Amino acid sequence: MSFNLLIIDDDDDIRFILHSILSTVEGLSLEEAADGASAREILRNQQFDGIILDYRLPDSNGEELLQEFKHSTSPQQAEIVMLSARDDKELIDKWLDLGAKAVLRKPFNPFELLAQLRVHFEF
What we know:
By secondary structure, the protein is of the alpha/beta class. It is about 40% helix and about 20% strand. It has a domain at about 50-123: Response regulator (Rossmann fold, 3-Layer(aba) Sandwich).
């Protein structure tokens, strides 16, 4: 089974850690974007099964992108997992209401994060 995943995070270290951990998953194809503009461009040209979306990006915030991606007219809607250092219950509830599959917290244990992503994305 093949699963296409887009990682959107402006932190090079976070993208590196996520890529390193996730590249061990058989059948998982990974792309990365460091900002909203790059993510939009990638999404214009490719379909994804899942997106890991950071809340804070240099040119937009993850909530705006979450709304945009969930209201896309694409026939295949990617599942979105938000990634954030924020621990605000109201904000987390809002993201879930907007269509996020889950909200995972930074900092994270890479192996626990992998286990959670396997559950939420079902790969």
